[in-house]
Backbone:
């Protein structure tokens, strides 16, 4: 352990435990298969035939009419008195779910990533190692990358749909979020306090001092422009990926409220969790958040309720608390989605005509088979927001309130001259230290504060826009 380091040993242990325990102990599998979620089973042909008042089919030799086999598919009236049986979801039932293995691996990795991050935060708080890199940051970065990968996988599934309507919705929202991101980046820091412009200014200044030695200082404005264009493209891509998770969240929210009509406390929790992204968005609007708390009006005077560092800490804790609240009401949303099968049957009974028995079975089975996809759509934004906030705390040099917040201003970039007469190993170590020092001077904590604050805020904005549009769609457009 002294050779490898405490953090590396804990990371290897976490990866080994995750690999060995996944078949036996999985938080993702427990979330779906702990017995609290009930799925609706599709009726068999015998049950549908009995409800329709039809007799059992004859043998093949008795079904021949003029020498031709009369083998028509079974169809029943839509207004039959169909009641679906329920069954708790078990681990065996989960094997047929679409993307279940991807869902299980992603959620379990996020859990272990959070555990490693908590350990590294405690390690740095108690031991205070000066020359070690926080390896919990690497786990959080991987979780963010895997979150985007999961969103892209689900969006690609919608793009492959035969109907094509989902593809048009994704492209429309991608273009809308492209425009919205450009508007957000030109708003002054007096209104949206990301700190992105001061961070970019610091990076440009430090980068110019490095490039000037090689005569490349003319590339600094181009690099700044390319960074902003890349950030806008990333915002558009994230908006497209978060479109259907937001629409699905609105649908399950409305259904969960109907299911909890006689539980006022549950309804309060559901409303609060649904409005969680709105709270996150408001916390970065300076006139109604930081300015109000730091200069609260009390008659003709203003009172400072908290300091700047205390507000940053409170904002981080608020995001963590809201993510935990979203996680706490996961079961209500997933059960509301599974209840779509019963709602579809009730709607079918209000219609006239006949429907094929296989169509009823296919529709009810399809709703259940996509519960893991809905779980990814629900948990993905929560995991992404949480780990962006954790990265913001560590890379932005914020504090959890347990110790003073360090300064985000780094020392000036300086390139140490190579030491003559050193061995090859020492040359490599000196080169690595020099490169690390230059990169650490360019990508400062002030830059990471602005970038990660903007990304965290943007994920919340995408959820707000898509979920509010989903409310309007499911309450007014879908019902008409």
Residues:
């Amino acid at each position: 352990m002294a050779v490898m380091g405490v953090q590396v040993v804990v990371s290897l242990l976490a990866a080994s435990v995750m690999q060995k325990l996944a078949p036996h102990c999985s938080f993702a599998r427990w979330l779906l298969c702990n017995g609290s979620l009930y799925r609706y089973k599709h009726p068999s042909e015998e049950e549908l035939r009995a409800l329709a008042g039809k007799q059992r089919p004859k043998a093949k030799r008795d079904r021949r009419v003029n020498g031709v086999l009369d083998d028509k598919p079974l169809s029943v009236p839509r207004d039959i008195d169909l009641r679906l049986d329920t069954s708790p979801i078990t681990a065996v039932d989960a094997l047929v779910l679409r993307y279940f293995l991807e869902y299980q691996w992603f959620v379990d990795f996020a859990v272990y990533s959070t555990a490693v991050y908590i350990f590294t935060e405690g390690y740095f708080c108690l031991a205070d190692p000066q020359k070690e890199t926080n390896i919990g940051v690497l786990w959080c970065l991987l979780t963010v990358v895997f979150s985007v990968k999961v969103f892209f996988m689900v969006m690609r599934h919608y793009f492959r749909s035969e109907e094509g309507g989902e593809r048009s919705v994704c492209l429309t929202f991608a273009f809308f979020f492209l425009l919205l991101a450009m508007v957000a980046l030109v708003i002054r820091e007096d209104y949206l306090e990301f700190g992105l412009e001061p961070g970019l200014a610091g990076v440009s200044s430090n980068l110019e001092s490095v490039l000037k030695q090689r005569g490349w200082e003319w590339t600094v404005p181009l690099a700044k422009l390319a960074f902003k264009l890349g950030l806008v493209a990333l915002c558009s891509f994230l908006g497209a990926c978060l479109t259907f998770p937001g629409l699905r969240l609105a649908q399950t929210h409305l259904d969960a409220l109907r299911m909890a009509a006689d539980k006022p406390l549950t309804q309060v929790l559901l409303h609060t969790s649904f409005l969680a992204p709105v709270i996150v968005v408001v916390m970065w609007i300076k006139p109604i958040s930081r300015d109000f708390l730091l200069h609260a009006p009390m008659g003709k005077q203003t009172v400072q309720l908290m300091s700047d560092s205390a507000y940053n800490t409170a904002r981080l804790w608020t995001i963590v608390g809201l993510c935990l609240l979203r996680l706490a009401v996961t079961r209500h949303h997933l059960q509301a989605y599974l209840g779509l099968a019963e709602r579809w049957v009730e709607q079918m009974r209000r219609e006239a005509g006949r429907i094929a028995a296989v169509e009823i079975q296919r529709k009810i089975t399809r709703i259940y088979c996509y519960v893991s996809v809905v779980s990814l759509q629900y948990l993905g934004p929560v995991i992404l927001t949480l780990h962006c906030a954790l990265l913001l705390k560590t890379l932005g040099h914020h504090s959890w309130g347990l110790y003073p917040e360090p300064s985000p201003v780094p020392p000036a970039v300086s390139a140490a001259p190579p030491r003559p007469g050193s061995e090859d190993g020492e040359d490599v170590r000196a080169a690595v230290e020099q490169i690390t020092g230059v990169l650490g001077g360019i990508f400062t904590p002030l830059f990471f504060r602005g970038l990660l604050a903007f990304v965290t805020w943007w994920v919340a904005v995408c959820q707000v826009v898509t979920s509010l549009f989903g409310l309007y769609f499911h309450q007014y457009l879908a019902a008409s």
